[in-house]
Design a protein that fits this description.
single chain; 0% helix; 4-stranded antiparallel β-sheet; mainly beta
């Protein structure tokens, strides 16, 4: 199983940027689908972005498309979420998730992911 640790959260003003990191341990990081989810105050956990194994094909929620970029560095066993043009509604705890690939999985469904980090707080002030 993969163990995931998020970092990079913090307080930023609206319009600013943050870069989140997800450090993974385990033998098969490069073969895992990696994803970011978030849970804001009074909200359900929602999908943010995902990146597939091997092909590095990416998916984004409509709410972050064009502002956020997910990437991975397999040599460092790390996935990233670059967040630009941040808005107050982006305030949430951001979680990294991972799972072995499955062609039938729903990429945006948090129930598909077995491995989770502890989360990192992102607060965007207006």
């Amino acid at each position: 199983q993969a163990q995931l640790v998020e970092s990079g959260g913090g307080l930023v003003q609206a319009g600013g940027s943050l870069r989140l990191s997800c450090a993974a341990s385990g033998r098969t990081f490069s073969s895992y689908t990696m994803a970011w989810f978030r849970q804001g105050p009074g909200k359900e956990r929602e999908f943010v972005a995902a990146i597939l194994w091997s092909t590095s094909y990416t998916y984004y929620a409509d709410s972050v498309k064009g502002r956020f970029t997910i990437s991975r560095d397999n040599a460092k066993n790390t996935a990233y979420l670059q967040m630009n043009s941040l808005k107050p509604e982006d305030t949430a705890v951001y979680y990294c998730a991972a799972r072995s690939p499955n062609s039938r999985m729903v990429i945006s469904a948090h129930t598909e992911y077995a491995n989770w980090g502890q989360g990192t707080q992102v607060t965007v002030s207006g």
